[in-house]
Design a protein that fits this description.
By secondary structure, the protein is an alpha+beta fold. The protein contains six helices and ten strands. The strands form three sheets. Strands 4-5-6-7-10 form a five-stranded mixed beta sheet. The radius of gyration is 16 Å and the shape is globular. The two termini are 29 Å apart.
């Protein structure tokens, strides 16, 4: 169970397997976490850099890492609220548990007019058919986890699925306060690429469509 949980956390940015689980991936630095190139916001991950980076490289291809505090993609509470509403997720409560310094706190609901920024925002969306989805905004990118499919009581899939607007996944490592952009191995995580993650798209994603 512990191995499966660790694998799941590292496999995708932040999928909450249970209600009480931390919504971020843990890891430990090797002393050079947070070092950046002078002319680039993100840099290629070296072979011996981070435990999280090593794990992700063994289960996919890590493209870049970015220190959360230096990222220009992180959005404010107000911007994320509008971004989600514009995608048809109106009145969807959004929560966060991390500050831009990587400090953890109990989950709090963000303010629609809030100016603070956070590395991760999460929300639970329920379709008209009663299908549950976790919505994640990580470093400005949006992902959707089909909980009704990945944790189907009638039989979980061999490889779990996530919706993304590109082939890459963004992972947040709270221990080092960094983002990792990577392409997971198909055997570890199945990424379905869609043009836009919005309410209309999720409403159309039945179990059969996800299996297709």
């Amino acid at each position: 169970m512990e191995r499966a949980m660790k694998k799941r956390l590292a496999a995708l940015c932040l999928l909450a397997l249970t209600a009480g689980m931390l919504t971020a991936c843990g890891g430990s630095g090797s002393g050079n976490a947070g070092k950046k190139g002078k002319n680039s916001e993100a840099e290629t991950v070296p072979e011996d850099d981070l435990d999280t980076a090593t794990y992700l490289k063994e289960h996919g291809k890590v493209l870049h890492k970015t220190a959360a505090e230096k990222s220009k993609k992180v959005k404010s509470e107000r911007t994320v609220t509008k971004m989600i509403a514009d995608r048809g997720f109106e009145d969807l409560p959004l929560e966060t548990t991390y500050s831009m310094e990587g400090e953890y706190s109990e989950s709090i609901e963000i303010k629609a007019d809030g100016t603070e920024k956070h590395p991760i925002y999460t929300g639970l969306y329920v379709t008209e058919a009663g299908n549950y989805w976790n919505i994640y905004v990580v470093n400005g990118s949006i992902f959707a986890d089909p909980l009704f499919y990945n944790f189907d009581p009638d039989g979980m899939p061999a490889v779990q699925t996530v919706l993304s607007e590109s082939k890459t996944i963004t992972n947040y490592d709270s221990a080092t306060n960094q983002f990792f952009e990577y392409v997971p191995d198909a055997a570890e995580l199945r990424v379905i690429t869609v043009e836009k993650i919005d309410a209309e798209t999720l409403e159309s994603m039945t179990k059969e469509a996800l299996e297709g």
